[in-house]
Amino acid sequence: MQRTSDQASDAKRWGAGALVFAALAVVGGMSNAYVISLLTIVLLFTFMGQSWNLMLGIGGQLSIGHALFVGIGAYAVAILNIKYGVTPWIGLLLGAVIAGSVGAVLAWLSFRFEVRGIYFALLTIAAAEFARIMFGGWDYVGGMQGLFYQAPSGAMDLRMLRGDARFYYFVALALAAIGVAGTELISRSYWGYVWRAMRDDDEAARALGVRTFRHKVLVVSISAATAAIGGGVLGLVQGAIFPDSIMGMAISVDVLIGPVVGGLGTAFGPLVGSMVAIPLHHAMGVLGDALGLPGLNSVAYGAVLILVVWFLPDGIWPSIVRLYGAIQLPARGRIPQLRKVGE
Amino acid sequence: MLSLWLNVIAGGVLIGLVYGLVALGLTIIFGVMRVVNFAHGEMVVFGIYIGYWTVRIWDVPIVLAAAIAAVVMFVFGFLLETLVVKRFVNRPHHYQFIVFIGLSLLFSGVLLMSFGPDPRPTASQLSFQTVSVGPLTLDWARIQAAATAGLLIAALGAYLKYSAFGRSLRGAANNRLGGLVVGLNIPRIYAVTFGIGTACAGVAGALISPLFDAQPYLAVDFTLLAFVTVIVGGLGSFGGALLGGLTIGVAEAIAALMFTPSMKTALPYALLIIILIFRPRGFFGAKDI
After folding, report:
1. ipTM here
2. How far lies B53's CA from each of B57, B65, B122, B143, in Å?
3. What pLDDT, in 10s, does the model give residues B172-183?
4. Among A49, A41, A42, A43, which Cα is nearest to A257's?
5. A340 to chain B nearest CA, in Å?
6. Distance (Å, rounded) from C-alpha B233 to C-alpha B243?
7. How would you classify residue B123: left for phi > 0, otherwise alpha for psi between -120 and 50, otherwise beta?
8. What is the tens place of the pLDDT at every residue in A244-288?
9. Would you call B89 an interface residue with chain A, using a CB distance cutoff of 8 Å?
10. Closest chain B residue to A298 measured between Cα atoms?
C-alpha cells in the first residue's frame, strides 16, 4: 500500500511540474518582448541556481564564486563561436568540460588539504576574482573590452543556437525544466542519498563506508559543469560578454539568490526564488533609475536575503509546501524505508 | 634603485599596519562570536566616508576624524549586532554567510543611494607633505595613519589582555557555555565585540581617507583584502592579523612596482588561494571552524 500511495503522489508531483512548465511555455508564446527577456533571465538563473543548489543544498559545499564557472562557460562558447565560427553546441560541451575540471581541481586541492566550510567558500571567491582580473588583462579573450556576438540574422537556427528573443526564451525554458527534473532525479538517486548523508554528517557517512572525498569532488565538478552550460547560454542571450559582468561577484550572488530565497535543496525552490527575486531586483533597478537612486536594487536584494533567512530559513517553496503539505504532499528529505532482508 | 625599493617597502609597511587594523576587527569578531563578517569592507568604506565628510565640513585633523569614526562605528556595530546579527549567531555557517552577503548588498546600496557612484577625494593637505628619514621619503598621511593604527592595535591588545572586560571576552571566546555558567553576560559581550570590530574597520577607513577616494564600490575589495589578511595570519589570531597586514601591505607595494596595475589587484587573491591550499590555518594556526 505504501508503495502505491508513494507512486500516486510521485505522479502528482511530476504532473504538477509538467503543468508549471507548460504554463510557462504558453506565457512565452503570448507575452511581449519585455516580459520574455526578463523571464529568460529568470529561467537561466533557475538553471544555474539548480547547479548551485546541487552543491550546497544537496552536497553541503558552499560556493560564493560560481561566477568563475559561469564565466568559463560563457567564454568557451564566445571564443569558439566568435573567433572560429564553431557552433555553440561544441562550446557548451567544451565549457562544461573545462569548468568541471577546474571545479574538480579546486575541490580536490581543498578537500585534500582539509579546506572546508568557510575556508572553501573563501577559496571559491578568491578563484573567481582572480580569474576575473586575469581575463580582464588577457588580450586574446578581449580583455576589458569583452567579446561581441554578431547580431542574429533573424531566422531561427538551432544548429548555431541563434534566434530571436522568443527562441532564447524556449532554450532557457528547456534548460530550467531539465534543471528542475535533474535535481529531483538526482536527489532520489543513489548519489543524492550519499551527498545528503555527507552534507548532514561527513564523519558518520565515512564511517558507513561512503568515500566522501570522492563524492565531494564529484558534486563540485558536476555543479561547475552545469553552471558553465548556463553561462554559455547567458552569454549568447546577452550578445556580449565582459569579465566584470560575467565573472563578477554580482553573478555569484544572482546564482545563489534563487535557491536561497526559494528553498535550499528542493527541486522547485530555485524556480520560485528566481521568479521572486530577479523581477524584484529588476523593478527596483528601474524605480531607482527613475528616482535617481542608483543603489535601490542592491538594497532590495540585500533585504530579501536577510528577511528570508530571518523569517523563512528554509525558503519560500518549503513554506508553501508545508502550508498545503498538511493535506497531501509528502515531507521533503524523508528517510527512505529500509527494505527487509529477502524482500 | 635601492632607495626606490626601500621607499616602496616602507610605504607597504605603513599601509600594512592599517590593513592589520582592518583585519583585527574581522578576527576579533570571528574569534569571539564565530561569525564571519562578510560586510566588513562596507565598515571600512563607512569609515572612509566619515573621514571625507568630517574633513570636508569641519576641516579637522585626520586623527580626530578617526576618533569620530571610532565612536560612530562602535555604536553602529553595537546596534547592528543587537538588532540583526544576534539572531544568526547560532545558525549554520552558510546561513550566516548569506545574511552577511545580504547586509553587504544592503549597505553598499545605501552608500550608492546616498553618495552616488563618483569617487570623492578627501581634500587633505596631508597627502602632499612628505618627511625624509635617511634615504626614505614618506608621505605624512601614511605615517600618521600607520602610527595611529599601530598605537590602537597595541592599546587594544593591552586592553583585551589586562582588563576585566578583556578577560571575560576571552573567556566567552574560549568556552561560551562555560562563560554562561560563571555568569558572563554573553549577549552584551557579543554586542560590544561586534562594536569593537566594526570600530576597528571604521577607524582604519577614516585613516586612509586621504589615500583612497571614498567610493561605494571599494567595499568588496576591502572585505576580501581583510579576509586575505586574516587568513595569511590565521583566522582568529591577534598577532596573525598584524603580521598578515604587514605581509599584504609589503607584497602589494612590491607587486605595484613589478607588475601592471591589473596584476597588482590580482595578487591578494592569488595569495589567498595559495595560502588556503597549502597552509589553511595561516601562520599562527588558529582554531578550526
Report:
1. 0.87
2. 6, 9, 8, 21
3. 888 888 888 888
4. A49
5. 36
6. 6
7. beta
8. 999 998 999 999 999 999 998 888 999 999 999 999 999 999 999
9. no
10. B109
Confidence of residue B124 (pLDDT cuts 50, 70, 90): low
> Per DSSP, what are the bridge partners of residue B136?
B133
Query: In chain B, what residues touch A309 (CB-CB under 8 Å)?
Result: 88, 91, 95, 98-99, 102
- The model's pTM is 0.89
A·B CB contacts under 8 A: 132
More confident residue, A46 or B274: A46
Distance from CA of A259 to the nearest CA of B (A): 12
pLDDT in tens, A24-43: 888 887 888 889 999 999 99
Residues A314, A43: Cα–Cα separation, whole Å: 21
Q: A289-324 burial string, b = 16+ CB within 10 Å, else e?
A: eeeebbbbbbbbbbbbbbebbeebbbbbbbebbeee
Average pLDDT along chain A: 87
Mean per-residue pLDDT over chain B, rounded = 85
Question: Is residue B224 less than 8 Å (CB to CB) from chain A?
Answer: yes
Candidates B86, B273, B288: best to mutate against A (most CBs of A within 10 A) is B273
CB < 8 Å to B36, chain A: 118
Q: From A109, which residue of chain B is nearest by alpha-carbon distance?
A: B277
The one-letter amino acid code at B38 reads F
Task: Please tell me the distance from the alpha carbon of residue A258 to that of residue A42, in angstroms, as a whole number.
Answer: 9
Task: Considering only the beta carbons, identify the residue of A121, A133, A253 that sits closest to B265.
Answer: A133
Nearest CA distance, B11 vs chain A (angstrom):
24
